[in-house]
Each structure stands twice: as C-alpha cells, then as structure tokens.
Amino acid sequence: MVKITFIEANGNEITIDAEEGNSLMQAAVANGIKGIVAECGGSMMCATCHVYVDGADFGKLPEREEAEDEMLDSTACQRKETSRLSCQIKISTGLEGIRVHLPTSQY
Amino acid sequence: MKIIEGHYEIEVPEGVPVWDVDPYDVDILQDPDEYYAELRSKGPFVYIPKYSILACGRYEETKEVFSDWERFISSRGVGLQDFELEEPWRPKSIILEVDPPEHSVTRRVLARALSPKATAALKELFQETADRLIDELLEKESFEAVVELAEEFPTTVFPKAVGLKEKNSRALVDYGAMVFNALGPDNELRRNAMAMGPTTVPWIVEQCNRKNLKPEGFGATIFAAADAGEINEEQAEKLVRSLLSAGVDTTVTGIGSALWCLAKFPDQFKRLKDDPTLLRPAFEEVLRFTSPVHSFCRTASGDTMVSGTRIAEGSKILCVLGAANSDERQWKEAEKFDIGRRPTGHLAMGTGIHGCVGQNLARAEVAAVLTSIIAKVEEIDFAGEAVWRPNNAIHALDKLPLVFKRA
What we know:
The complex is a heterodimer of chains A (107) and B (407).
Chain A: E1 2-7, E2 13-18, H1 24-30, E3 50-53, H2 66-71, E4 83-85, E5 98-101
Parallel strand pairs in A: 1-5
Antiparallel strand pairs in A: 1-2, 3-4, 3-5
Chain B: E1 3-4, E2 7-8, H1 26-30, H2 33-42, E3 46-48, E4 53-56, H3 59-67, E5 72-73, H4 102-113, H5 116-120, H6 123-138, E6 143-144, H7 145-162, H8 169-181, H9 188-194, H10 197-207, H11 218-227, H12 233-246, H13 249-264, H14 266-274, H15 279-290, E7 295-300, E8 304-306, E9 309-311, E10 316-320, H16 321-324, H17 359-376, E11 377-382, E12 387-389, E13 396-399, E14 401-406
Parallel strand pairs in B: 4-10
Antiparallel strand pairs in B: 1-2, 3-4, 5-7, 6-14, 7-10, 8-9, 11-14, 12-13
Helix pairs in contact in B: 4-11, 6-7, 6-17, 7-13, 8-9, 8-10, 11-12, 13-14, 13-15, 13-17
C-alpha cells in the first residue's frame, strides 16, 4: 500500500492507502474522493480526473504521454504546469506520501 | 476446421458450462434481464453451441476481456465474423476494428476532434435546440419520444457538429442500425438491415468526402490532421465515416433510455429536479442501467487464461456489457436505478483504448436535453406502452409514447 494525500479545493486533506498497480484515479474512486469524477473510467477521454500534483512531488512521476498532454487542454479548471490526469498515474512505492491537489470542478 | 458465422468452430474449454441459448433471439434482445442474470450465474464464461463462441457477463472478466487489447483484439472484428477468414461487409473501420499501433494514430485524431473542449464549444447550439424542442413537445397532448425527441435532437445537432452540408436524418439513423446489426449472426435482423444498404451507403460514403464538409466542425478537424500529414486523405474519409456510423444511433438510444428511466422512476426524476447537480451522474446511471450497447465481441490473439478458463487462439468472446453493468458482484443493489450512485467504471462506453471516442459528445447532447427538461417539465408520464427494438448490438427503444406536464 502507498499513502497518497488529496487536498480538496477547500483545503481539506484526505490521506488514503492506495494499492500498487492501480491508477491514482482508481484509488481515488475506490476511496470515495468526490473531487475525482472520472466519467470515462480511465480511457483518457473525458479530462474529469484532473489533478494538480504538488510541486515538490511532480518530478517523481514519469513524463506524460502526448495524448494525455493533448487531453489536458480540455480540463474544466485551468491547466497548470503540474496538471495531470490521475487515470494515467500508476501507483508505485516511489510515490509514497505524494500530495495531490484537486481542482474546484471537473466539468 | 468448420466455420460457423464467419469464424472457426472452437472446442468447449475444460470446466466451461455449455448453454444452449441464442443471445440474438428477439425476445432476449427486447427484454434481456433474465438472460443477463442466467449468464452471470453459470460462471465467468459459458460456451454457446449455436454460434461456437464463449460469452462472459460477470463484471470482472468482461472488463478484462473487453479492455485487454493485446490478448483480446479488435482487428479480427467486434462481431461474430473473423476478418481473417471473411471479408467484412464494408471496408473495415480504422478505429473500431484495428489494434495498436495503427489504432493509436487514428484514435488520437478522433479524440482531438471530439475532445471535451471541442464539444463544449457546441453547448449553446445544443441548449437552444433542446429548449426549442422541449417547448414544442410541451404544446402536445402526448408525443412519440423516440422519433420526436430521441431521434430529432441528435439528427438536428449532429450534422451541424460534424459540418455536413446536407441533412438526411433517415440515412444517418439507418446506417447506424446497419453497422450495429452487422455485428450479429446472419439472422433476420442483420439481413433486413443489410437490405437498407443501397438506399443508405452511397449517401454516407459521399458525405465523407472533403468537398461535402464545411470548414468548421469535427470533419474539418479530421481533415486538418490529413493536411498536417498525421493521416492520409483516405484515412480521414474513413474516420468521418466512423463518426457517421457511431454518432447517431448511440445518442438516439442514450436519450431515449434516459427519458424511459425518468418516466419509469418518477422519484428519481423528482430528485434530479430538486438537485440538478445530479444531472451528469444521473446519465451515467442511465448508461449503467440500460446499457445501450448490450454486447460486442473480441477475438483471442493467442492461447490465454482468464479466471482459470483456458481460451484458445481465435476464440470469439461475446462481452455482454449489459450483464456486467448489472452484476451484483460490482454494483450494490444493481437492479435499482439510483441517480446518486456515481457508477464510475460501468462498461456502457467500454473502457481502455477502445473506450467510446464520442462519449463527450454523447454526454453534452444528453446534458442539454435533460437541462431543458429539468427546467420546463414537472412530470413525465407514459402515454402508452414502451417497446424495445431488437438489434444485434444495441438495446434501444422502438416506441416511447410520453406526456410532458409543464412545470
């Protein structure tokens, strides 16, 4: 299990234990994190699992694929440098303790 | 080896129950719930002798087979026919019926054309059209919702969104019926659908040509990718054809099914009116609950195992999405229509690399219709019996007489 902390738009923090191998989106949905909608279920189609990875942790993630980069242009909340689609982040031990900020809305 | 319905006959894998059922029987297609339940109860897979295929309907295995594009491929057809053995009825789709790496290129172009951003730009058009339509329907004592709303709305907005210069609603609806019925066996449904070919196909093919598309719209985005050298001209035409194949029948079904659910479960309609933020999750629940695409096939690319079942190379596996979406192992009180459920992970739009590329468009269209209904309609009642239309891959309404009471 890998500890991940979500910071909701209102500042509220929720820490979950995420299973390795799952995506960050799947872990969020399984733990009832409301700020992740994930309408397409992980097909990289809907941009409703958008997150801002904490600046201190962003470098721990592998780089985005081009298709994810393109889809990030469709997020409801302004895209930032640390924007990612959580369905494309695979949980691994290297991500232990990362902090992830949620946007105010997903659509 | 013997060929059945365009694919090789397979042996019954050890431990897999044989179930003498016809999934394409008209009664099952119209009212599939018992079939879904029995399919799940028999095990992760069953062998269906009539077509010599495997079928799965439990959530876990259905998801695995449906989304693992390396072991369960699409390039040999997503219906019963194996394209390695038989020519498909039309040149095969370069998005639905291909695998990576070819698929990755075309998928990216279509994903761009149909992105949330691209569909959000159509919001005003969708809302104005929906408002006008709902106002008209409120004037009527009762109406036939399949024709007058579920078909009328997409066939009005979709050609504009694509940038078609000509309108031909009938051809769009009929072509969709052909494409989806073609996925089944050589039964009456498929034969009747194919008979519409001469009146439908030439018009569709013609619209895919660059000269018949306006400079703005999904079609133009696709041809821009051809201009940029990402795809060639012929690929662009085929991708426009994919839009016309899968962009209408499916949304017609989604809208019809949403109306049916809200008429059938007035408490849920009231809940939605009281809290319109439930609109998007409500549509996800409609999708889970009604599974507009009830089943698609995959073909095993090699010998493999799923949940202890040996699957031989070349096996056709019918992924019964409707059964997976009503599996109690995955969905608590699965038989209940609950708009507060947030059913992330339902398989109605598929999942993974072949997940429905037009899903943003579908959601935007339905959101416009429901937004208008929430604002203007107090009560939705049946004005007669709802009848489902059998189709080899789509579970859609044929008739839906309704009454809207003004808010």
